Amino acid sequence: MRDTTPQGTYKVQALDRAFAVLDLLGESDTPLGLAQVASSLQLHKSTAHRFLMVLERHRMVERTPNGKFRLGLRLFDFGNRAIEQYDLRDRAQPHLRRLVTETEETAHLCILEAARVIYLDKIEPARSVRMITRIGASNPVHCTSVGKAILAFLPPERAAEVVRRIRFERLTHRTIATPEALRAEMEKTRRRGYAVDDEELEEGLRCIAVPLLDAQRLPVAAVSISGPSFRVTAQKLPSIANQLLQCVRGISVDMGYVSSSRANRAATAAWTA
Amino acid sequence: MRDTTPQGTYKVQALDRAFAVLDLLGESDTPLGLAQVASSLQLHKSTAHRFLMVLERHRMVERTPNGKFRLGLRLFDFGNRAIEQYDLRDRAQPHLRRLVTETEETAHLCILEAARVIYLDKIEPARSVRMITRIGASNPVHCTSVGKAILAFLPPERAAEVVRRIRFERLTHRTIATPEALRAEMEKTRRRGYAVDDEELEEGLRCIAVPLLDAQRLPVAAVSISGPSFRVTAQKLPSIANQLLQCVRGISVDMGYVSSSRANRAATAAWTA
DNA sequence: CAAGGAATCTCATATCTTGAGAATCTTGAT
DNA sequence: ATCAAGATTCTCAAGATATGAGATTCCTTG
User: Fold this and answer.
1) Which of A162, A196, B45, B59 has the fewest Cβ atoms within 10 angstroms?
2) What is the pLDDT of residue A261?
3) Nearest Cα to B204, choosing from B177, B173, B238, B182?
4) How distant, in Å, are the alpha carbons of A115, A139, B110, B209 from that of A112?
């Protein structure tokens, strides 16, 4: 049996399998029957069944009236405990909300994990095509404005470390495809103070992001505005960037990273060491 | 080694243990070291270590800079996938938000699972003492307004089944403590159309809830308003109940449970097959 | 710089998971 | 109704897999 195990030396077969089951159910947008689970994962009916029963007992999985399996609400519980540590999310929300009202476009709050950015929160404007992103999901750093915003303001060594981990997959024809190109882009980002993703993640989607710096002036997250390229035009970028900076400044104050009074030092200048 | 396994026949030791680890980390509000995890769970250092490494590989746990363990963001991802199925949450949110603006008190959206209610969403008013509830968490049916609201409108057999499962623990001196008392309370709830929790869950906290009925007029969720007893006074209950009904009506329409025009035809007749 | 505490790692052993297959339950077609 | 096809649940013997004692290494702190 081939295992889906990512690289890593420690192994507990049962766990890898269980998570494979959860993964599968998480990917599928419709509940799956035992047989489907078993065959998709190359598990024996019997084995898959046992796993599902145990997962169900833990409420990690639940059954629809017709007996199919889907993710259970225990995961929702765990998920909420997991972000609770990041009280960033709660504190940032009001600011994001205001930002969305102003810009009429979707706002995201993201953090960096390994070489991917994770969406901690998303606020959508009242009337707008729903974006496909799901809170909790992740994207590669190099093709998102948030990723670039964080990366650009990370200390050189840590940034290099992240870049090393990137697998430069091409998602659109504009996706940055080499470490060199990415480094150049980061330079540009630092100069203007905000990062742009110009249809590099998805055709027709343009995003702009600024980093949220903590008390040590290290980026802990990024806030972005995303929208269809025809609405988020190149001309509007500077003004949106401004609104983003304002928003981030508010969050910084709320988080206690900066005192509200002297909250105005340009983030750009601060980075020297 | 004693296992924490709930009742249930199927067993996979490794899974039960892994979830015990997650549970432990979820309960603790500070990250835990390997030794703490091992001793709390009566696992061998070595075993606990292996589990943590595997969980970390799957990003179910992550390590703080000083090497302690806490819940990982993968859980956040899974959690969000898990509620995605309940698009109820998204649809209800705007209505809840309006409700909160009107009442200036905290609103909850809950569903029933087994004999507990699970908090799908919580909206807090701008200025208010933060409530202790965590989205995703759960409480026993019998001591919450939401629980009683759903229970009261469930078909008799299903309600009975739920009641059978309740372990009548006393959380305050007012907590309903017997099936009979609960049945009486349900009768009362049906008569007036809304459920009340008068400091039965927590001293000083009063809540009021109404059920959200689907197209078959079966309760699928409940919406509540909670606040300190001195603000959510007995006199205000009817007027809050009214606002709740309004809110729930809006959600029903959004969910397509009722047509907005003739929102009041009893769909009772529809249930035959 | 040493000592104590914590985290990692190794490996032989037996425990726990595995999966073949039989039994049972559903579903849909006739 | 009745049957067949498909899906799910259950049992149990075999052996692969997780286990944990303990040795080793890595930090921390005095």
Assistant:
1) B45
2) 52
3) B173
4) 7, 10, 32, 40
Give the CA-to-C1' distance from A227 to C17 in angstroms: 50
Write down all domains in chain B, each with its CATH number in brackets. Answer: 13-78 (1.10.10.10), 86-270 (3.30.450.40)
pLDDT value, residue A258: 80
What is the number of residues in chain A?
273
Residues of chain B neighbouring A78 (CB-CB closer than 8 A)? 22, 26, 71, 75, 78-79, 136
pLDDT in tens, B165-209: 999 999 999 999 999 999 999 999 999 999 999 999 999 999 999
Q: Which residues contact B195 (CB under 8 A, 6 or more apart)?
A: B145, B146, B147, B148, B149, B152, B185, B189, B208, B209, B210, B222
pLDDT digits (tens, 9 = 90+) for A174-204: 999 999 999 999 999 999 999 999 999 999 9
Query: Which residue in this structure is represented by tokens 């915003």?
Result: A149
Q: CA-to-C1' distance for A136 and C26, Å?
A: 37
Among B52, B55, B57, B220, most A C-beta atoms within 10 A, so best to mutate, is: B57
- Kindly determine whether the C-beta of residue A9 is less than 7 Å away from any atom of nucleic acid strand C: yes
Chain A, nearest residue to B70 by Cα: A82
**C-alpha A64: how far from chain center:** 30
Contact flag, residue B45 CB and nucleic strand D, below 7 A: yes
Residue A14's contacts (CB-CB under 8 Å, 6 or more residues apart) are A51, B12, B13, B14, B15
3-state secondary structure at position B110: strand
List the single residue in A8, A14, A78 with the smallest CB-CB distance to B79. A78
